[in-house]
Specification:
heterodimer, A: 891 residues, alpha+beta, 33 strands, 26% helix, globular, B: 292 residues, four-stranded antiparallel β-sheet, 10 helices, 26% strand
Chain lengths: 891, 292
Amino acid sequence: MAGLMVNGRQVQVSGTTRRLSDALRFDAGLTGTKTGCDAGDCGACTVLLNGQPVCACLTPVARAEGRAVTTVESDDPLLCRLRASFLRHGAAQCGICTPGMLMAGLALLRAEPRPSRAKAEAALGGVLCRCTGYRAIITAICLALEPESGEAAPAGAVGQSVPRLDGAAKVAGDLFGADVWQAGGLVLRAIRSPHPHAAFCFGDLAAWAAAHRAQVFTAADIPGRNAFGVIPAFADQPALAEGVARFRGEAVALVAVEDDGADPDLTGFPVEWQPLPAVLAEDAETAAPIHPARPGNLLIQGRVRRGDVAAVLAGSAFTITGEMQTAHVEHAYIEPEAGSAWMEGDVLCIRACTQAPGMDREDTAVVLGLPVERVRILPSAVGGGFGAKLDLSVQPLLGLAALKTGRPVRMVFSRAESMQATTKRHPGRMRAEIGCDAAGRLTGLSFDGAFDTGPYASWGPTVANRVPVHASGPYRMPAIHATARALHSHGPVSGAFRGFGVPQAALMQETLIDRLAEAAGIDPLEFRLRNALQPGDATATGQVLMAPGIAECLQALQPHWARARAITSATAGRRRGVGLATCWYGCGNTSLPNPSTIRMCITPQGAVVLHQGATDIGQGSNTVIPQIAAQALGLPLGALRLIGPDTAHTPDAGKTSASRQTYVSGRAAQAAGRALRADMLRRLNMGDGARLALDGSILTGAEGGQVARLDLATLPANAMGYALMAEETYDPPTAPLDGDGQGKPYAVYGFGAQMVELEVDMALGTIHLQKITAAHDLGRAINPMLARGQIEGGIAQGIGLALMEEYIPGRTDNLHDYLIPTTSDVPEIESLLVEVPDPEGPYGAKGLGEHTLIPTAPAILNAIRHATGIAINRVPVLPHRLLAAIREGRG
Amino acid sequence: MFAYIQYQPSDPPVSRHARPATLDEAIGLLAEGWQVLAGGTDLYPATQAQSLPGAMVDVTALPDLQGIVQTATGLRIGAAVTWSDLAAAGLPPACRALQQAARQVGGWQIQNAGTLGGNLCNASPAADGAVPLLVLGAWVELAGPQGTRRMPLADFLQGPRRTALRLGEVLVALHLPAQALAGTSSFAKLGARAHLVISVVMVAVRVQMMAGRISDVALAVGACAPTARRIAPLEPALIGLSPEAALEQITAQTLAPHLAPIDDIRADRGYRLEAAAELLRRSLTEAAAWQG
């Protein structure tokens, strides 16, 4: 054992060349230091060694002896100032990178109390963040030592930028999937396929297990149905493969060993592989089917058809055709999947990072052959999700081991496992033709997209259905024929990723619109405005919209557009371009039920308790839903106590996906707040205009000089211990789509438009982003600071999609070769919050989370074309690809 | 039939460690097969294990590997000097490229831990330290059981992950000859993002000007061949030219015979040559202007 001086205290740790991060977390119990990659690529584990930032994952314990180690748990006064600044400026979203950002920021502030943005960006360039887009973090660091404004913090009414309610935990080093476990249990590792397609068989597992003092589990041990999937009708993915592995990284066996701190020894695990030919996306339709029941490897095709598009396009004044190709994109949240499981009586408890506790519970119960009542899901803080933590990852594996052994067990995916084993954005190969009349009115669109869904269904059906519905963009489109096919391959499993295929389709459609406007001789913004959906217009699915805000978004951009397009000068050797793109996106499931239930209660002692089961993956539902509920109830936000997601304590608020939580769970929260208020007013015998107040157990209502009081302590407590309780459910009113995709797929849509200013280095093919102006119609900004955070974070991911991200199995399954944007890759962002209230949304609110990513990449491509005349048809636009296109002068 | 492939997701959990205070002690352990541990920024990413597998000699406490000092023949840089040390040191303008490279290696955290010697011994074709040291005509000093020897850096770097180090030897220092410390230098690297760049191409140029004309010049390119390379055959043709005139001599065509770039996920061969030429031209212009 060695003694280390950590935050001024002596701690005992073991090891010499052991990673300092591991020693801090497991020996010293300081889990605020996060592990994102174990390779120095993400900076989440940044600690200070004698005041200098280092990656704890690359630091031998022995080297820290005799030096001062500072971690996020320190009570350093400057660090406290910085934490407060992070909260004030909305610099923490999911919180997984926050400790690393804080430590690097602390080192910088000690050297330079008021750094420039450039200095701060350089100092934090070694810490990756996937949520915030970095802008708020840099602001929080640069302004950390500015005196706080004397204004009182907002009370948290709807429309106020109250700091996130779970923020204090985020800036202290929150408890994520890997951060809570029981001592004396087991640690679980998966054996994974090194091949994209291979038959396998096991040797003498019992002998190997005995020699390694391990327990081994395979598909043969799974007591239930070894097939899961987010859409039950398509469930086809085994928790552990049976005889054949269908993608590189698929789990085939589990090894559980004593959790004694040693690295599990998996050498010589007895499995033999017979590599088999792998189906590639390009020839999926002619290859032998991966699933015999799905000929042509077609999982599903979605379609929207309206009018005779071929005839319409043939008769159009202008038409443009094009193709677009996108890559596999990795979610690259900084928290690899992790969790722990244990038995409480005969109930299996699983604590893990997830976006969908209810679905986890149902699917895990099916795999393990348990009644759903015997599974409890306790979501941890989630270090980023963006769609990939909707599918099961560690849950059935942990569950199997805990169930079989009866012992507590934990599992943490390595970065490589996280990238190999979880879902990706569907690569798309699209072609389309679009037309308009002589006046620049859109006439029709034909669109076809093939999406590589990998070997298992996951969210492939959702992509195939969402893409045709959104293919028109937020425009009047009299005729359309849009199809999207989800095709199986032996590539990575493609699933949900912020936008479900719509960002890929928007790359196709919004670049075509730009070229069509040029052909028609109309300014690109004016062209879009001319075609923008207006209240009362029907969409391509025949749905009449009451509150489309796309025209308002474009109008909000107009002055910025005029300014930006007037500038023609550029840095020497570069050309300037300004481009634009729009989005629309339906909130909630496509024509399927997706109810949320929220419970709001008050104890006999007068504590207002909100049971809110929506998982906050950084987007802010832990704050926004309480803001809505408090507003509906008519008591201040500060009066609420929050009980977060836990299937034992919160009713099902559905999954955190499809930009549905603010809208759907928000509506349920609004209804619960109103119902509880109505119950209170009835007991006070007062009208809805009364002002409520709480003083201990005494509830007071006052209106027009009349005052009434109710002592809650006199009310009998119900089975849950509450004096009053309201539980309300909301499910969006949608209607099924017919065979031509006609119907009402969503009850609420959000809209947006973004403008990108950039320069292209004509000799190197590099892109230099200068500014992005983003106008988003979110109906009502419940919390403007959190909304801006969603916009900045979505834009950062859009930049990655456009310019650098391409997941190649076996080649880029680390954060070294798989590039996501760093601090200086995200330019200045000006957010314009447009509020066109939707009558269906809570206080008029619409969804925003996914919308923000959709316009960025096509706006970048349109700006590149404005600068160079080159129409790009493949992303990411890596420098060598752009230079080749410039040299060929191809369109 | 089944092909037997042993799957090894993790290393055997055997690790030993020493942090000697003398070079002799370190060499003794290395001769027994122990491995050098310097900054750790390349060793830890290479394993999934929590402790480094094998026996490691931490060389960062060895006085011989520390410090940047003026010697009778030039400048001596200890191999365990970190990037942050290098960036903060007061060095002549000829070393500017080296200091620019030091500020662009990984992030701040990597710069605080990673060492110049470790970067060279790791022998990546894209090693950030190699190109600025090549234009400075650097020599390496190696110490081993048979004593000390020196050789040009260009001979030390033998290929991807291959150096001239023999069993028991450790890289002790870099020596920059005085005649190469004249003039100014500039470094540039290119990748698809702003920080934590894994370079597609990197270059360094050192130039000495006299009355507006180039009197001495050195060019080097990284990530375009199995090792970083000095482009010495092209250099004499630039002597006596103005910087503007010299630019015409640096093209993808004139570089091609001296480099061997590959196609990979980051770029293709043709782009690497074009970008190397463009970055060399820009760096030459910048270095000359900085001096002028």
